Amino acid sequence: MNRLLVSVSAGALATLFSTMAVAPATAQQAQPDRATTVDDVIVTAQRREQAAQDVGIALSVLSGESLTQQGVTNVNQLQNATPNLEVEPAFGGGAAQFRMRGVGFQDYASNNSPTVGVYVNEVAYPVPVMTQGLIFDIDRVEVLRGPQGTLYGRNTTGGAISFVTKRPTEELSAGLMTEWGSHDLFRGEGYVSGPLASGLRGRLAVSTEQGGAWQRNRTTGESLGDADRTGARALLAWDPSETLSFLLDVHGGIDKSENQGLYLLSDLRTRGGAGPLIPADKDHSKTGWGISPRFAASIGRAPNAKPGRDNSSWGTSLNANLALKGMNLTSITSYETLERSEYGDWDSSASVEADTFFGSDVDVISQELRLASDNDSPLTWVAGFYYSKQDLNERYFSDFIDIYGTYAQVTYDQTVESWSLFGQAEYAFTDKLKAILGLRYEEETRELQGFGSAFGGATALPPTSVETKMTPLTGKAALEFKPTDNLLIYGSASRGAKSGGFTTYNTGDRSGIQPFNPEILWAYEVGFKADPSRAFQLNGAAYYYDYSDQQVLSAVWGQNGPVGRFANVPSSHIWGAELEAVLKPIQGLRISQSLSYKKGEYDEYEAMDVPASRLAGHAVYVDMAGDPILFPAWSYSGSISYDWTVSGFAVTAETNYSYRDEYPSWLGVKYDVPDYWLANASVTVGPENANWSVTFWARNLFDQEYDLTRNFFTSADIAQPGRPRTIGARLSLQY
Questions:
Q1: Which interval of the chain is the signal sequence (predicted)?
Q2: What is the side-by-side order of every strand in the sheet holding 716-721?
């Protein structure tokens, strides 16, 4: 098959989008649905197929086509399309920090569990860095807000993001998508699907993303930020009988991308003030990096290496389903592995003041067994068993040679073993009233083995092993009431738990690696899902979260003074609300909107005042009761699409946009991330009865300058900027 490409001049695209910015629209296929009704969306959020409007859970659903239109190729980018979700990239690297409804965990290390569970085809990715692969060949993604544990293998406090890939088809089909954009960005995706033998179907999908670097070294002019990642997935679906089916999923990926560059928020006085001064970057496309020969040799990089990664991953899962009398038995067996090698320059300069390296080998095996009812009884239920084992071998190196005259090496292994029993039952008292009860019991042991640190080659902390265990009982109770066919009102109380863990940063003190406790979250929620007319859909939810032992980054007093470590806040709370609406007022026009607000506060928390403690020579604490929990308060997103026909051609114009409120930082005002708006737009054209279409698109249409994160490391105040405006074209073919 020949590769088909489309090119278009930047000037023509800019002119086109400037004239259409006021009347665009969400993605439609070459033959759009012209009905003035909001389509039912089928989800499996509760482990069975249901219309999303019949599920008493706050959830958002995005189709694979919508992800393509918005340029979403990574889980982090979902934050611009989903209410109350933020995904913060740590220091421009591959570690993702998830936060949903304000429930999050700020950690750039690899060893601790996230507050938001990420699943692909029902398989959990419990180590955050494992979630950073390419997103492709997706049927839909379901984003569930609030604790999830009575129906899912993993226990979470924030929520779950569940990707469902497209399945093998009964008939032979194939597709190809090629996309070109600014800064030599190229993306390609293709698949072939169909029958292989009687009862056997297969699907093979591949995707690649290349180029796109838009930042330059402020001294040499070299570019930084090119993508170089490729993924593949093969699915085999086998139905040996009417009651037995299997789905085998084999997938893998390679990521040799350069890291996103950082820019300097403030003047950097290199080498502790003894070296050249580098002025703050007013141009966010400027960045810098440099690596010492010793550090390059120790991490296996060239002396002129750019910040970047050399990661590889693969995995497989087998999903087996057996229909029994009045019930279904499901088994999901999986194995996932990741080899990570990532070099980052966190001082954004040629001076070697904060260079880092992560070498991670991760292996995860899991087994889930579920038994679920399958009948028309008022009682429906699901019960399950889940087992998981994680093995992590980690090397975390830091080079401070130009500022402190030393470098640090941290090495350790970590094993996490857990098993759980979970279940949920629903009973319909009448057609209008339903009660739901779910429970989960879990035992998890997390062991840090052989943790050792060295500074300048000298041992600072001999190999040490520590362990933490949790055995939480969590669950959910809910009521659903349908006074009319087009209105669902629900209320729920649920309890979720997040694992304890270890702070695995540079330390020469045993106090730094002592475990922090699990956090427990009681979530109370009321909501509604309404279809006042077939052309209008409105959903809303309000919630109150009661935290115990919330996990936050703080410090403890060690042998030689303050030691950075995650700590537990005895008591805190978060509350908020969200609205989502979809409207099809006239034929061809579709409007969707979402709005969310949240606020949090510490109820009981005494945190160490590090500067005061250093002066006093002992721990000094400050009472933070009544202080706010810091996260963006408001978020807003929406899309508008309109499709019509012209001389036998189907045309779709679309725009999608989002607003992210200011993100205050506990580090100080300098590190507050300002609020920002983003807008994208596209036009898709193709023959009404043909199998191809061409799309012209612009992302960050108004060239908004914004930051994704701000922080500091040693002497450097840095920020990671978001991408500037990019424009391009996409050709899609279906056979």
A1: 1-23
A2: 263-264, 716-721, 707-713
Mean pLDDT of 145-151: 85
466: nearest Cα among 509, 519, 408: 509
> Rounded distance, CA 180 to CA 420, Å?
47
Give the residue among 630, 453, 474 at the shortest CA–CA distance from 552: 630
Q: Do the beta carbons of residue 253 and residue 314 sit within 8 Å? A: yes
At 45, is the pLDDT very low, low, confident or very high (cuts 50, 70, 90)? low
pLDDT by residue (tens digit) across 209-268? Answer: 999 999 999 999 999 999 999 999 999 999 999 999 999 999 999 999 999 999 999 999
pLDDT value of residue 13: 33
**Is 174:447 a contact under the CB 8 Å cutoff?**
no
| Of the candidates 329, 407, 401, the residue with the CA atom closest to the CA atom of residue 368 | 329
| CA 438 to the chain's CA centroid | 26
Q: Quick one: 405 exposed, middle or buried, by C-beta within 10 A (0-12, 13-18, 19+)? A: exposed
Per residue in 279-296, pLDDT (tens digit) is: 999 999 999 999 999 999
Name which of 354, 335, 351, 332 is nearest 343 in CA terms. Answer: 354
Q: List the single range of 9-18, 92-101, 179-188, 676-685 with lowest mean pLDDT.
A: 9-18
For residue range 15-29, what is the model confidence (pLDDT) as tens digits?
333 333 333 333 333
Number of other residues whose CB lies within 10 A of the CB of residue 666:
15
Q: How many residues does the chain have?
A: 735
What are the distances in angstroms from CA 649 to CA 6, 474, 693? 18, 55, 10
pTM of the model: 0.89
Q: Residue 605 and residue 416: Cα distance in Å, rounded?
A: 29
40 or 395, which is more confident?
Answer: 395
Exposed / middle / buried, residue 191 (Cβ in 10 Å: 0-12, 13-18, 19+): buried
With beta carbons less than 8 A apart as the criterion, state whether 316 and 251 touch. Answer: yes
Nearest to 250 by CA among 233, 267, 269, 228: 233
Read off the pLDDT band of 660 (50, 70, 90): very high
CB 444 within 8 Å of CB 418: yes
Secondary structure (3-state) at 221: coil
